[in-house]
Specification:
With 331 residues, the chain is mainly beta. Helix content is 7%, strand content 53%.
Length: 331
């Protein structure tokens, strides 16, 4: 039976949309990073332990702009959000000593809107944060935060990889109204051990509340404004919860034509609506040891202990790098 022309066109469009949803395999070359601020893997730096890193490059022009990272499955499976509107999925590979060796099985797929179509323009594509939603301890979906066209959307996970149309998540009006590239920058979801378990913490990069940066807690019982104290010259770029409910906040800035960063450790009891979070600095970096560090995630390392992964956004520039650094907590 022949379909009417309009139905044929609709079927073709749906077919093309489905074809476009398939992830594209991308080769990624990795060069290990042995030292950080002059120390070797396994040695302390500030209040953490340096565990190694990699510099990632690819001949594929779509690889880059890595602004957020989350772990979604076994075998150190991860998904990174690119600020050009792509999901970058793969597995972090370790050597026998437990140091990062490379990124394997890398695929890139477009982030889609609520209708299942690719995001139409840069203003809508600017993904800056990504987090895994777990149900009964199993990764079930991912949550992505965008700046410029400020919003949050959830996506299905299939075999640890994002798939399908966006499901938009309601956010406070004041945050939605921030139509700039300094709006929503950080998303992290509190683990079961946290006093605000299951709630999503949102932090802005440039929205000031007095001498602090504005944030918001999305939750059922735990819902409302909060803030994080400001460090001169630095802005929050991502956050990640530790298994015990404590919070890590990554902050980044520039100084003397190079990047600087720090990581703050905030006690679980400080993370609640109405509070001004402060914490203590547990890691600093500058110059050639780092780059434009924008994403942070916590996951079990090769030895089963928590690893802290920090990634950089190269902005698709030749003078910046896609850098992945790993640390662990000092025992």
């Amino acid at each position: 039976m022949n379909l009417p022309l309009r139905l044929q066109v609709a079927a073709l469009a749906l077919s093309l949309m489905t074809l476009g949803a398939f992830a594209v395999d991308v080769p990624v070359n990795s060069v290990p990073v042995q030292t950080y601020r002059g120390v070797q893997p396994g040695q302390p730096v500030d209040k953490l332990i340096w565990q190694g890193g990699i510099v990632m490059t690819s001949p594929d022009a779509t690889f880059g702009g890595l602004s957020g990272i989350t772990y979604t499955g076994s075998g150190h499976q991860l998904v990174m959000a690119s600020d050009e509107g792509n999901f970058v999925s793969g597995h972090l590979i370790y050597d026998e000593a437990g140091q990062p060796l490379g990124l394997g099985g890398v695929t890139i797929s477009p982030i889609r809107n609520s209708k299942g179509a690719e995001l139409p323009r840069k203003f809508a594509k600017d993904a800056e944060a990504i987090e895994t939603i777990k149900r009964d301890g199993v990764a079930a979906a991912i949550r992505v935060g965008f700046e410029n066209l400020t919003r949050i959307a959830d996506f299905d996970l299939v075999n640890g990889m994002p798939e399908g149309a966006a499901r938009e998540v309601a956010i406070p009006q004041w945050l939605e109204d921030l139509r700039t590239n300094r709006s929503l920058e950080s998303i992290c979801i509190a683990p079961p051990a946290s006093p605000v378990a299951g709630s999503t913490l949102l932090l802005t990069e440039g929205m000031r509340v007095g001498d602090a940066y504005a944030g918001f807690m999305l939750g059922q019982a735990d819902r409302g404004d909060l803030s994080i104290s400001r460090t001169e010259g630095l802005n929050p770029t991502d956050c990640a919860f530790l298994p015990n409910g404590d919070l890590l906040v990554l902050e980044r800035g520039t100084s003397f034509l190079s990047f600087v960063m720090q990581v703050r450790h905030i006690a679980a009891a400080e993370v609640k609506p109405g509070n001004l979070m402060r914490g203590e600095v547990v890691l600093t970096g500058s110059g050639g040891d780092i780059d434009n560090m924008e994403g942070i995630a916590v996951h079990p390392g090769p030895d089963g202990k928590s690893r802290i992964t920090i990634i950089s956004d190269d902005n698709f520039n030749d003078w910046e790098r896609s850098l992945l650094l790993e640390f662990s907590l000092a025992e």
